[in-house]
Amino acid sequence: MLFNKKKILTLSILCAISSTSFMPSTYAQEQPKEKLDNYELEEVVVEGKNKSDETYDDKYIRTGGDVDVITAEDIEKHHYISVADAIKRLPGVEVQDVGYKAFEYGYSNYQASVTINGDSRVLILVDGKRISNEANSSVSAEHNKSQIFALIPPENIERIEVIKGSAAMAYGSDATCGVINIITKKGEYNSSTLDIGFGSWGKQKYSISNAGKNDKLSWIVSYSKDKRDDMKYVDREYKENRTYYNSGYDEDNTFIKLDYDFDENQSLELMHTYKNTFGYYPIMAPDYSSKAALDEAIASGKFNPNNNGYDKLPQDDPAWNRYHRWWYIFNAGSFTKNRSSNYDVKYTFNHDDGIDNYIRIFNNENRYYMDRNRPKFTDYTKLDYKQYSWTKDQAKGINLRWGKKLNEDNVLYTGFDFTNSTFTEHSYASYYPTTGVFKHGKLSNIERDTWNVFIQDKMQFNKLTITPGLRYNYYGKNTGYSISNKDKRTDYDTDSYSRLTMGLFTNYAIDDNQNIYASWSQVYNAPYAPDIASAANKLEAEKGNAYTFGYSGQIGKSSFGANYTLTKFDNTFGAFSVPSETDPELFEKKTTNIASDIQAIGINYGYKFDDNWSANLAYSHAKSSIDKKMNTSKDASYEDLRNNLHYNNKYSASINYEKDKFNTGLDAILYTGMDTNYFSDNSFLVLDWHANYKINDNLTAYLLVNNLTNECYETKAVAKEGIGALPMEGRNFMIGLNYTF
After folding, report:
1. Residue 405 vs residues 36, 409, 458, 527: alpha-carbon distances, Å
2. Residue 162 bridge partners (DSSP)
């Protein structure tokens, strides 16, 4: 085993030196340096990209890798409404959206989710702090650590670094496919900004912020509101504009960040973010093609869902889908509420040659509430029953980081993290108005402590940079209980999980403008308590290896590149129907270990025609394969359909123009490879356009048009809901003014 690990380390180094056959990336990843100091290349700026060597992580933490950087300037030009909106155009990043703000906690089918290089295990950081809860996952069906619904609005973000593949041991052994690293703004000079926008479907967006610096104190304070009525979409069957009933929302955000510099080496930072989202909950869009048949079935008495229940019908019975896709459209008033409140206190005790040594204490809290109304299908004015869910997840802990530049060619970096995660829920309680009966739903209370420690050494050998690293991960026992709505109690006192993992990250500078990079890291990730409770047998932690290879360069006015990632899971989690313990002829859904490979490629090209015009082209593809480790039913599971429920290829292009007071850009995304058993077409082309005009030094006017051609499309499919169940927004616009004073 030791021989194999040494062999892998050697192969990784050789790959970094010899992989000259790879094509380049959109910008140079790890610029050549004779010393580990700043090194500037001839500037080739491409919209939505940033030179990697300008970021803190690339100088001291990360080595090589495929990294895209979205800057504050990019955010201002495009007026992104969320982090998901900002990153969805990047190659290798897949954002599957449902078209509305509401979401059902714990169900990936009915909320936005993100994958990188085909893998849903995306780690999200805000200023280096994890945004996750180890007691439970908000999208546990995909084993996703990300909580993209809880992230701060883009106007408070300095930059977003999207790392595809592994690039540093500091990010974690569970960051299997990549990291979204969000860096928040800091007050640098005195200014205030007011932004007001109006658009389609009653769209209103307001934000106001004040930033400043006075001697040793700097600050930034902001408030924003984003609201919209029911949206419209293009119906797949009739190609007509339809109203997505019950899809409006109202969201408020506040952001406060205070920094005090005691001296050149010591500083104190306080940060608080608050997000309150009210979203009407439509679940999915109706199937207009079945409405007439459904009305006829009800009128003739052939189908009475109030007596029989649609869930008792075979799902291949046409009446099932007709009812299932229509009942909720009359449940006006169903909604979800989410409140995220995060606090951070960070004390930097030393700046060692530009490296921040700090300790941070944090408390992240998310509260979620759902109120869902189900009407009587024979009398839409009366309720059959109401369903409620309450959820709270909280993660509090401490981060410690210490780094030192041992010499001009060697940076040592280490850290320690401890997190106490708790999860409390009362889900799917039901109230029946006609009888006054209230039935409690599932009750859960789970707690888990986790900690890890890592060390890595970034070493420069002329043109070759090598960063080996070690990380010890400890996932404590899940403690607590769960009571089902049938009063079946499950007590949690699970095993703890721990392992030492290794990684090696390399970069080789061919010349001043070209680089090749390669990395290998071991994957380790413990299951959540619900996974363990529903396991078919003893559930082992996820284990595997992740590999990344790539080439990036700039030649003249062109920037170009390619990358390949392979994640091989010896053990991961899958939900399958397995033989029942009481009756082998019956099957029940259980979680079990499976083996899985995920492969992804990405190709980027950018060209700067002159001082005014620039363009980008990109292509990305990802595919998963699985190997079941136990007897399962022949019925399709989520794992079986892994490659069918999303697009398999993404082509993106943009052309941008900027001169004097005016800038504009057209973004295009072509999704292909969709399975028409679940999507309304096998490919979709979506065009977005933005324009900004600087009226004077303080005032800028802007106009956005999204889905310019009014495309009928989906980015997400749910097998049981039928084709086109989650349509995206039709053509819409927003016009606004941004005033700085």
Report:
1. 9, 8, 9, 37
2. 68, 180
Q: Are 579 and 587 in contact (CB under 8 A)?
A: yes
Query: For residues 354 and 61, what is the distance between their CA atoms, to the nearest angstrom?
Result: 12
Q: CB under 8 Å, gap of 24 or more: what pairs does 481-485 form?
A: 481/443, 481/444, 481/445, 482/442, 482/443, 482/444, 482/445, 482/446, 482/529, 482/530, 482/533, 483/442, 483/443, 483/444, 484/442, 485/428, 485/439, 485/440, 485/441, 485/442
Sign of dihedral through CA atoms 117, 120, 123, 124?
A: positive
Which pLDDT does position 488 carry in this prediction?
81
Distance CA 146, CA 280 (A): 22
Q: What is the pLDDT of residue 360?
A: 98
**C-alpha span between 83 and 467 (Å, rounded):** 30
Q: What span, in angstroms and rounded, lies between the C-alpha atoms of 62 and 66?
A: 11
> Do residues 337 and 368 make contact, with C-beta atoms less than 8 angstroms apart?
yes
| Rounded Cα–Cα distance for residues 423 and 381 (Å) | 37
Residues 6+ apart with CB under 8 A from 500: 470, 471, 472, 473
Residue 511: strand, helix, or coil = strand
The one-character DSSP state at 49 is -
Are 139 and 35 in contact by the 8 Å Cβ rule? The answer is no
Q: Quick one: 337 exposed, middle or buried, by C-beta within 10 A (0-12, 13-18, 19+)?
A: middle
Q: Can you tell me the distance from the alpha carbon of 11 to that of 40, in angstroms, rounded to the nearest whole number?
A: 31
Q: CA 614 → CA 609, 654, 703, distances in Å?
A: 6, 8, 20
Instruction: Say how far apart CA 66 and CA 485 lie, in whole Å.
Output: 47
Residues 6+ positions from 197 with CB-CB distance below 8 Å: 79, 203, 204, 205, 206, 702, 734, 735, 736, 737
Residue 706 and residue 233: Cα distance in Å, rounded? 12
Question: Which residues are within 8 A (CB) of 280 and not within 5 positions of it... i.e. 6 or more apart?
Answer: 100, 102, 230, 246, 247, 248, 249, 333, 334, 335
Bridge partners, 498 (sequence order): 474
Structure tokens at 204: 């209103």
Pairwise CA distance, residues 145 & 166, whole Å: 16
Specify the 3-state DSSP secondary structure of 579. Answer: strand
pLDDT digits (tens, 9 = 90+) for 106-152: 777 888 888 898 888 888 999 999 988 888 877 665 666 667 777 88
CA–CA gap between residue 520 and residue 246 (Å, rounded)? 47
Nearest alpha-carbon partner for 654 in 69, 60, 21, 47 = 47
Helix (H) or strand (E) holding 342: strand 335-352
Q: Which residues of the chain have pLDDT under 70?
A: 1-54, 139-146, 290, 293-295, 297-298, 300-331, 377-381, 536, 576-588, 628-641
d(CA 587, CA 576): 9
Q: For residue 731, what are the CA distances in angstroms to 80, 199, 229?
A: 16, 11, 15
Using a 10 angstrom Cβ sphere, with 0-12 exposed, 13-18 middle and 19 or more buried, the burial of residue 644 is: middle
pLDDT at res. 584: 61
pLDDT (0 to 100) of residue 583: 64
Residues pairing with 524 in the sheet: 543
Please check whether the domain covering 2-198+228-249+325-341+409-417+449-740 is classified as CATH 2.40.128: no
The set of residues, in sequence order, having a beta carbon less than 8 Å from that of 543 and lying 6+ positions away, is 499, 522, 523, 524, 569, 570, 571
Structure tokens at 394: 């909280």
Question: Which amino acid belongs to residue 11?
Answer: L
Whole-number pLDDT of residue 586: 62
- Measured CA to CA, the distance from residue 418 to residue 396 in angstroms comes to 8
Task: Report whether 375 contacts 422 (CB < 8 A).
Answer: no
